[in-house]
Design brief:
Layout (H helix, E strand, L loop, with lengths): L1 H32 L8 H29 L10 H33 L10 H10 L5 H9 L1 H21 L3 H29 L6 H10 L11 H8 L7 H25 L14 H24 L7 H24 L4 H19 L6
């Protein structure tokens, strides 16, 4: 009977899974199509392949996340939480993507009616030229501030559900909060992924406001590749199966500590001390990243304890914070030479490190 229910839930959840599979296919088409592109490094190829596999993996275990968060709980409107999560996922993931596709088609129709748009506004070569002209280093600060958003959004959702929905939902409030976080994260990531695919395949489908988003969110190195924004979200996915403080610390370090490392380095300007020599990494950036890794870890534990989501001691928090600060430093140093994307390395290595620490101390990771 349980197996039958699982099969039925998977059938209902297929629209979301198919969406991820379709995106993955287009990602691999781009990877193979540009494999021999002049100037495309081995590291960029590896990054793109990892992006694609993280996207595919998320689509595969998404049904398991729905079952895990549903946790045999009763639903609010439907008989059980799993059915509600399945329905809401179809509405707010597939539905939002259909709206975005419609938005892209409307942009295409605009270029058909006005072919002049293809000379500048919807011409990707022109976009790249203008982008590179207007890309001073300090514009990275704006991009890194948006990098902080995932940590802020997750914290706000927990606060809102704890104070406003706990009286209605009871002890399952955290499962519903995590599912909302999951939906918002997926919509955020897939929006950027759709934007990437339109940008790389046919820029005539890019609406004017989306073009502005590209200007704000890309780096020069990403012009012929996927942006790292979506992969950051998909790298968080596996940690939704584990305890909240573990997930929250990984998310805070990846979004906030990494952003602060870059901001510290940028603000140091000409006074910064590069290390290793000949790289864009700086000692000032390492200090900022390490400091905020420590702060984020302590804050993540205190925040989780306040809302009754963990019982970790302050001693444990200080121990984990110290180790993660050192790990963050080594990841930054290594990626200064080995050009793998830290937006997936940070969450995966940080999360695995916390798991190993907790297991070695005989503390549950769930």
């Amino acid at each position: 009977m349980i197996l039958a229910n699982v099969k039925m839930n998977v059938i209902y959840i297929l629209p979301v899974m198919l969406l991820f599979f379709i995106f993955t296919i287009f990602m691999f088409i781009h990877i193979f199509k540009t494999w021999n592109l002049e100037g495309k490094t081995s590291y960029k190829k590896i990054n793109e392949i990892i992006y694609a596999f993280l996207t595919l993996a998320f689509g595969i275990y998404y049904p398991l996340l729905v079952l895990w968060l549903g946790n045999n709980n009763n639903g609010i409107f439907l008989p059980n939480a799993v059915d509600e999560f399945t329905l809401l996922g179809n509405i707010f993931i597939v539905g939002v993507m259909l709206i975005i596709v419609g938005w892209g088609i409307s942009a295409k129709l605009r270029t058909i009616r006005n072919p002049e748009l293809l000379k500048e506004q919807n011409n990707y070569e022109h976009f790249c030229e203008e982008f590179l002209k207007k890309y001073p280093e300090r514009s990275m600060i704006k991009r890194k501030i948006t990098h902080i958003l995932p940590g802020v959004v997750v914290g706000l959702i927990i606060i809102i559900f704890y104070f406003f929905f706990q009286p209605i939902l009871g002890n399952v409030w955290i499962d519903y909060a995590l599912f909302v976080i999951l939906i918002i994260g997926i919509d955020f990531a897939l929006t950027f992924l759709v934007q990437d695919l339109i940008r790389l395949f046919d820029f005539s489908y890019m609406p004017p406001n989306a073009i502005k988003m590209c200007h704000a969110g890309l780096t020069p190195d990403e012009l012929d590749s996927f942006s790292s924004t979506s992969v950051m979200v998909f790298a968080f996915g596996p940690f939704l199966f584990l305890s909240f403080p573990l997930l929250f610390i990984v998310l805070l370090i990846t979004s906030i500590a990494d952003a602060m490392a870059s901001i510290f380095g940028i603000l140091a300007a000409n006074k910064k001390h590069h290390f290793p020599k000949g790289t864009d990494k700086s000692i000032e950036g390492y200090i900022g990243g390490g400091l905020f890794t420590f702060i984020c870890t302590i804050f993540g534990v205190l925040f989780s304890n306040f809302f009754g989501l963990s019982t970790w001691s302050i001693e444990l928090a200080l121990f984990i914070a110290s180790i993660l600060s050192i790990i963050f430093f080594f990841i930054d140093v290594i990626t200064s030479k080995v050009k793998l994307q830290d937006n997936y390395l940070n969450p995966l290595i940080t999360g695995l490190s916390i798991i190993m620490i907790l297991i070695s101390l005989n503390i549950s990771i769930f």
